[in-house]
Write a structure and sequence with these properties.
Bound molecules: phosphoric acid mono(formamide)ester
Largest sheet: 5 strands, parallel
Number of helices: 10
Order of helices and strands: HEHEHEHEHEHEHEEHEHH
Shape: globular
Radius of gyration: 19 Å
Structural class: alpha/beta
Helix content: 25-40%
């Protein structure tokens, strides 16, 4: 499969076969992601990392990933030190940065920003999160984690819990899981349920999903409990946020009745939706999930930069 020059804007731009291939390449990246092997797949290639919104995992794992495959990085994470504060448009920033680098990783608060950037740039643009839109590389590392832990991505039940309205990770993940025919459970207060466009996408594809308000309704049935933070920063009205803040919390008591092999995932950061006591339980996988961002992003960068991944064992 040839990914050279491809943008990574929406998970819907990728077929099931392409996603499986990316996960396979990522699996071969694991030893180098851990520093046990040295790779020089993209010598001299430069990644421009443009973070208009805060990030810990996505930004650092992209930086680790490009360095682990032999490339270099430029960029910013503090927008107040850029000419955006003087009124420079995103389009102008992208047109200029494409002359400096070989691939752009963009996080932006505006939904659709990555798609627009991809239209302006001739080099690949990777969406590192666009407002409440999508986070496709997060989805790939989520799928990688599920496959690693459960051995497959079919015939399973996944509950997405929390802020399904504003959470971009759950939007991308829902689209991807529907491709794999996964049984979906959406657990959220009514005001934070999945947006209608996501639901109608599922209905058009005859995907099976159920809506719940309480996590106890699904606890005994699911293979994956995917918990998310309520995205305070995306609420237009703080009073609306206050009505749902702390609406749910996963602790050891709430896990009673869970399947023995059920795994808990979370894209992180968490606030108080998973109690720290859960970290030591047999179910917790969210820190492993965060590590998996490195091999997945190594694979994606190598592929869009046209590296010969056939040399990987
Ligand atoms: N999962 C995720 O996107 O985390 P960051 O916001 O820290 O990048």
């Amino acid at each position: 499969m040839d990914f050279k020059g491809r943008d990574v804007v929406s998970i819907n731009d990728f077929t099931l076969e392409e996603i499986n291939y990316i996960l396979d390449v990522a699996e071969k990246m694991v030893p180098a992601a851990k520093g046990e092997e040295v790779l020089d797949l993209v010598p001299g290639k430069l990644l421009a990392s443009l973070f208009f919104e805060p990030s810990t995992r996505t930004m650092l794992s992209f930086e680790t990933a490009i360095k682990r495959i032999g490339g270099k990085i430029i960029g910013f994470s503090d927008v107040s030190s850029t000419s955006a504060v003087k009124g420079e448009t995103l389009a102008d920033t992208i047109k200029m940065v494409e002359a400096y680098a070989d691939v752009i990783v963009l996080r932006h608060g505006r939904e659709g920003a990555a798609r627009m950037a991809a239209e302006f740039a001739d080099i690949p643009v990777i969406n590192a999160g666009d407002g409440a839109g999508q986070h496709p590389t997060q989805t790939m590392l989520d799928l990688f984690t599920m496959r690693q832990e459960l051995g497959h991505l079919r015939k399973m039940s996944v509950a997405l819990v929390g802020d399904l309205k504003y959470g971009r990770t759950v939007h991308s993940l829902t689209y991807a899981l529907a491709k794999f025919g996964v049984n979906l459970h959406f657990v959220a207060p009514e005001v934070l349920q999945m947006p209608p466009e996501v639901m109608s996408h599922l209905e058009k594809r005859n995907a099976t999903y159920e809506v719940h308000e309480d996590v106890s309704e699904v606890m005994g049935d699911v293979d994956v409990l995917y918990v998310t933070r309520i995205q305070k920063e995306r609420f237009p009205d703080i009073e609306e946020y206050n009505k749902v803040a702390g609406a749910f919390r996963i602790d050891m008591e709430s896990l009673e009745g869970a399947k023995r092999k059920m795994i808990i995932m979370h894209p992180l950061p968490r606030v108080d939706e998973i109690a720290p006591e859960v970290d030591d339980s047999k179910h917790a996988r969210y820190f492993q999930q965060a590590f998996n961002g490195v091999p997945i992003r190594m694979a994606l960068l190598a592929l869009v930069l046209g590296a010969d991944v056939g040399v990987l064992k």
